[in-house]
Each structure stands twice: as structure tokens, then as C-alpha cells.
């Protein structure tokens, strides 16, 4: 069956261009992130499209770091971007580029536009420039320096490069049309003075190109055939075309698509940085963050993210995707690949009075019912166990099919358990259950006997203490950015840390990132903080799948 990804309008347009170009034509795309933060789930859609289109059509995708703002960019961000793209499953081979590779050529082209009377050095400051620009309903006004002689602008531009002027005192602007209905065409800034050390070029430059000036020319230099951009760049396309046409150089085809937006989160790198700097999250890779590093630490797999991107598809119209669709994708993937394990989050001790003291029995548990090749493992069973505290009620309501005084439940992979007595502390709190098991209910005469409830457990003597971190949505409302104070919409219950949880002993040796389904609890993965002496697990997602149920009803 043909995949949904192959049917989107971008792929159809690129394929048609290749057919029209004839034999030997090759598609060249690029992914051009700014190294001023971590990549997030929205970038994953662009990565899957840019690299995916090239891969599917026998072409190549470049990775180009748009390093034009040294004030906000670092090599650490560059390294993380490359790490995230590789983790997602894509490679660029020897096609790694930087906008800074082209700084000298961009400077030469800027001089060409000045000589042609199509660019000038301006002395308006940022506030004045904003005032002169006009509004959506009113045309802008020409700068007093707009018509200065080309030779004067060339001299000033060279002196800007030489560092003679302070930051903000001069800019180089394109001379286009201050009355244009497209504000991007109202004499946009091409260069600004920024005396900051660049992570690649050091202090060689103190003037830096604006993104809109570097973008199209970088694509042209690299021979990009298709520049795939999100919709906010549609109004910038006339400017890119103007630059390329004015320079008389090759022009790639730009195609815009809707960016990925998720509810219950923010996707602006500026706002994500504010969360980090304001210590509202631990770091960029906090598992509550929509960054690829955060999702990876939470236990999301690259396969699930690629599947999610394929599910949401590529459209022209902007929309907001329910985060439940992303959660559904990782559930489906982990259901197939995650090993099952038993973990008790809030332990309640059980003593089996008719089971011999000191005896240990090893029972067989299935590692993954979806994958027979995953095999089985041995679970130690002993006189003292831990069960989940919420699996017991002293005075249960109707249809409570778990443990209560005089009631029976099946222990997962083990015997039928009956509660005989309840032990309480001085405060009247239940601290221990005295129980018996039907010793014939595992493989004996009553092995087929059925009871309504099944609960999970761990052997008290063999379990390991672990810290479990339960993550929920970072924001309380579906549209946090619709609030004037979006920080105030942070969900105070987005993280719950449970100490003293009881897990199977083998889990203590789990490598960081290893994923498990803790039966009846959800999907978890070992955190990088985890050690054999102090295991730590993050909850990736719960077992309940609201999106799948909604789809089934539809």
C-alpha cells in the first residue's frame, strides 16, 4: 500500500519538477537550522520532509547551519543539532555547510548591489527604522540616507566591516519599495554591526548578514533545487527572488508547507529558552520539553517520531495537532518493542502466611507478548511481596475487582491471593496485609480457576528501590500562547517524583534510554541519571490511549 507521505503536495511538486527536467536531474534539498537552541518536534517534521524527499527521490539533503547571529549561537547548539538529526535517523554525509562559509561571497554580492544602486548604508537607529517602515495599511517613508551616492555607501560599508562604527549605528539596506504592500520589501536590512565573537569565524567579522539576505544566496551557492520552508516564509519569498534576480544568479524553487503545532506546549525557541533560563524546567532536555533531546530522554523512539510526522502529513493550511496523536505513536511503537517488567510505584507489603519462609520460587514471565522472539524471564516469588497500594481497599465500592479483606485476586504470572487480615499502625493507616495463596492455582488442580482481578507485584527480598518520575503535560491549557502571561499557564503537576518504588532487580542494570512497559503502569525508560545503586526511570506515556479510542468511535 502506498504510504501517506508519498501523496503530499510537496512530494508531488518535486517529483513533477524532476520529470520535467528530464534524465539525470537530481533533487537537492537542505535543512537550515539556526544554532541558537535545541531542535524540537516541529523541526522533526521539517527534517523528515527535507531528508525524506531527497532520500525517496534519489537525491541529497544538505545540513546547513544558519550561523548568522553570534550573540545567540554556540558550538554546543551546533553539536546538539547534529546529534538530534542523526538520532532521528538521517545523515548528510559530506554535505555539511554553514552560512558562515559564504560570508565573503555575501559581502561581495552586497557590494555589487550597492554599485547597482540597489543597496545603501543607512544611519537610522532601530526605533527610527520601525517608525519609517509604516504599517500594514500605511506605506513607509524613505530614509534620509536612501539616495546617498553609491561610492559613499561602499566606503561606509567597508568601514562598517573594519569595525569603525559602534553596534546599531549603521546598517546596510536593500533599496526596493517603501510603499510595497509586503512589508518585507520595504528596504529590508541586509547587514547589521554586531561586535561579537563568532563560534566559527572568531573576530574576523563584526558585520553579520541578516537571515533573509543569507538564505536564498546560500541555497543558490549550494545548488539547492527545492527550498522547502514553513508558511511564515511565504511572504519572504518575493524578497528572496528579488535578491537572486538582482544578482543574476541561480534561483531554487521555494515551496511552503504548514509548520507543526502541538497543543499543550509552546514551539518558539525563544520561549523554550525562557523556560530554561527561568528554571521552570531543568534544561533543554527536560522530559517535559518538546525538544528532540527532551523527548529522547523521556523515552520516545526515533521510529515513533517519524511515524508521528507521517501521520500528521504535509499540508498547506496551518493547524494544531492534538498531543494525543504523538502519544499514540509512541505507544504503538513501544508496544511492539518494549520489554515488559513489574514495578510497584506506591508499595504496600504483603505477607503470605501459608508460603514457607525462606523459600524462593522462580516463575516464568513473558518479555513481550507482541514479540515471541523476546522470550521469557524468571521472576523470583517469595513469602513477602509488595503490591500497589491502590490495588487494595479496606471497604471497596461495587465493581472494585482488586484486593480487599476476604477477596481474591490473581497475582500476575503467579498464584491466586486472598487477603485474610489487615495490619495498621498507630495512626490507623494500613501498613501490611496478611494473606494466603491457593498453592494449586499456578499449575495444580485449580490452575484454571478464574477470579475477576489481576494485580502486579514484586518479591520484597529481591526488588530494588528506584526513583520514578511521572511526567504530564507542561502547560495546563491547550493553547498556552493565547495567554498574555503564558508562563502562568505552566502545569504545577507536570512532574511528580516518587521515591522508594519497588522494581524488578534486573532493571537496576538498565542502560540509559532503555524502554520498558511497567505492566498496568505505563511505558518508562531509564534516565541518564540512573545508576545500578540508584535506578531512575522516566514515564514516557501512560497505557491509556484517548486518541485511539476517539478514532475507533469515529
Secondary-structure map:
Layout: H1 9-21, E1 28-31, H2 41-56, E2 60-65, H3 75-88, E3 96-98, H4 103-115, E4 119-122, H5 126-133, H6 150-161, E5 171-174, E6 189-193, E7 207-209, H7 211-222, E8 226-230, H8 237-247, E9 253-257, E10 261-262, H9 269-277, H10 292-298, H11 302-312, E11 320-321, H12 323-337, E12 339-341, E13 343-344, E14 347-352, E15 361-366, E16 376-381, E17 384-388, E18 408-411, E19 416-424, E20 430-438, E21 454-455, E22 457-459, E23 464-471, E24 495-503, E25 515-518, E26 522-526, E27 536-541, H13 546-553
Parallel strand pairs: 1-2, 2-3, 8-9, 10-11, 12-25, 14-20, 18-21, 23-27
Antiparallel strand pairs: 4-5, 5-6, 6-7, 13-24, 14-17, 15-16, 17-22, 18-19, 19-20, 23-24, 25-26, 26-27
Helix pairs in contact: 2-11, 7-8, 11-12
What does this structure look like?
The protein has 554 residues and is of the alpha/beta class. It folds into three domains: 103-211, Glutamyl-tRNA Synthetase, Domain 3 (Glutamyl-tRNA Synthetase, domain 3, Alpha-Beta Complex), CATH 3.90.800.10; 261-339 and 464-554, Orthogonal Bundle (Glutamyl-tRNA Synthetase, domain 2), CATH 1.10.1160.10; 343-455, Beta Barrel (Ribosomal Protein L25, Chain P). 27% of the residues lie in helices and 23% in strands. The chain is built from 13 helices and 27 strands. It has helices at residues 9-21, 41-56, 75-88, 103-115, 126-133, 150-161, 211-222, 237-247, 269-277, 292-298, 302-312, 323-337, 546-553; strands at residues 28-31, 60-65, 96-98, 119-122, 171-174, 189-193, 207-209, 226-230, 253-257, 261-262, 320-321, 339-341, 343-344, 347-352, 361-366, 376-381, 384-388, 408-411, 416-424, 430-438, 454-455, 457-459, 464-471, 495-503, 515-518, 522-526, 536-541. It has a seven-stranded mixed beta sheet with strand order 12-25-26-27-23-24-13, covered by helices on one side. Strand 1 (28-31), helix 2 (41-56) and strand 2 form a beta-alpha-beta unit. Helix 2 (41-56) packs across helix 11, helix 7 crosses helix 8 (237-247) and helix 11 (302-312) crosses helix 12 (323-337). The radius of gyration is 30 Å and the shape is elongated. Residues 1-5 have low confidence and may be disordered.
